């Protein structure tokens, strides 16, 4: 009998490693993650461990997901892949990205400054700020203001939401069960549909200004785009975008830690090629799927 395919479930929940959470806390988190639980927990919010004194605003509180195998008796088995970050705030652990970018561009650590959500555009009718840049990392010095933009892109997932998992945890907090629903990271929506339009809007203007943009995605996301270039450039003059690819590692206590990984410099055009790359199915495979989906018109 063929083993069931791995399914994606929670990797980190409100900053806690899912498999290491004690049963009583697991039940509390399930209550907070549900609609009624969020209302009940309004007076005692869970704070995001990756920011400073900021309550978690991610619906359901899932920081990252990962694939798991199916264990005996329908229990949650071993991990079957890397964690995938689903909340952009997860990238803020220890301000790793800011320090990493500052090192790459040669900013002096003691002089680095940061601004959040800097308006990049204004609405043509309202005149209100729009099109924010997530972060701007700068080093004001001697009357000059060298700076770099930093965009962060987490991954959306397709399939059923996590509500069924929250319900099962609330009902049986003392055991971890194999995910009941099929879901998977939606690289296409996260990259070509979400990230690429942002780059196409912002990078040409920054290029005219003589400025550059850094983009942070996690290692599985970057791998879905083809991974590192065959000869990756680390020359800031070779492109418009500094790709930062941190990784989530797991320490001896089972906690996930964000660490520096790969980085390289690409032009907007090469970045767009990465984001648009997709392998089409054969016509026969398409029509086989089509046959199974066709239904009579009502």
Describe this structure in words.
- The longest helix has 23 residues, at 187-209.
- This protein has helices spanning 23-33, 35-40, 96-105, 163-171, 187-209, 219-224, 268-276, 283-293; strands at residues 7-13, 16-17, 62-70, 76-79, 84-85, 113-118, 121-122, 129-130, 133-138, 147-152, 157-159, 183-185, 213-216, 241-250, 256-266.
- By secondary structure, the protein is an alpha+beta fold.
- The chain starts with 6 loop residues before the first strand and ends in a 5-residue tail after the last helix.
- The protein contains 8 helices and 15 strands.
- A 6-stranded mixed beta sheet has the order 6-9-10-13-14-15. Strands 1, 2, 3, 4 and 5 form a 5-stranded antiparallel beta sheet that branches.
- Strand 1 (7-13) and strand 2 (16-17) form a beta hairpin.
Characteristics:
298 residues; alpha+beta; six-stranded mixed β-sheet; five-stranded antiparallel β-sheet; 8 helices; 26% strand; globular
Annotate the secondary structure layout.
Elements: E1 7-13, E2 16-17, H1 23-33, H2 35-40, E3 62-70, E4 76-79, E5 84-85, H3 96-105, E6 113-118, E7 121-122, E8 129-130, E9 133-138, E10 147-152, E11 157-159, H4 163-171, E12 183-185, H5 187-209, E13 213-216, H6 219-224, E14 241-250, E15 256-266, H7 268-276, H8 283-293
Parallel strand pairs: 10-13, 13-14
Antiparallel strand pairs: 1-2, 1-3, 3-4, 3-5, 6-9, 7-8, 9-10, 11-12, 14-15
Helix pairs in contact: 1-4, 5-7
């Amino acid at each position: 009998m063929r083993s069931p395919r791995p399914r994606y479930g929670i990797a980190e929940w409100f900053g806690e490693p899912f498999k290491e959470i004690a049963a009583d806390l697991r039940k509390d988190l399930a209550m907070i993650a549900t609609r009624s639980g969020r209302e009940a927990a309004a007076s005692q919010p869970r704070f995001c461990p990756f920011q400073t004194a900021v309550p978690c605003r991610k619906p359901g509180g899932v920081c990252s997901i990962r694939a798991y195998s199916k264990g005996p008796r329908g229990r949650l088995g071993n991990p079957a892949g890397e964690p995938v970050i689903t909340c952009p705030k997860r990238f803020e652990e220890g301000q790793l990205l800011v320090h990493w970018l500052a090192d790459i561009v040669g900013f002096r650590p003691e002089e680095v400054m940061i601004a959040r959500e800097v308006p990049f555009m204004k609405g043509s009718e309202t005149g209100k700020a729009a099109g924010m840049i997530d972060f701007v990392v700068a080093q004001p010095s001697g009357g000059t203001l060298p700076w770099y933009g930093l965009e962060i892109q987490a991954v959306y997932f397709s399939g059923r939401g996590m509500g069924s998992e929250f319900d099962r945890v609330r009902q049986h907090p003392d055991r971890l069960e194999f995910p009941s629903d099929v879901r998977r990271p939606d690289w296409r929506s996260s990259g070509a549909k979400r990230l690429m339009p942002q780059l196409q809007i912002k990078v040409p203007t920054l290029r005219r200004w003589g400025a550059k943009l850094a983009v942070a995605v996690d290692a599985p996301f970057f791998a879905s785009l083809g991974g590192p270039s065959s000869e990756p450039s680390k020359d800031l003059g070779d492109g418009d975008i500094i790709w930062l690819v941190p990784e989530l590692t797991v320490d001896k206590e089972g906690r996930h830690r964000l660490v520096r990984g790969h980085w390289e410099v690409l032009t907007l055009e090469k970045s767009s090629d990465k984001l648009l790359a997709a392998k089409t199915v054969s016509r026969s495979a398409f029509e086989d799927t089509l046959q199974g989906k066709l239904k009579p018109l009502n």
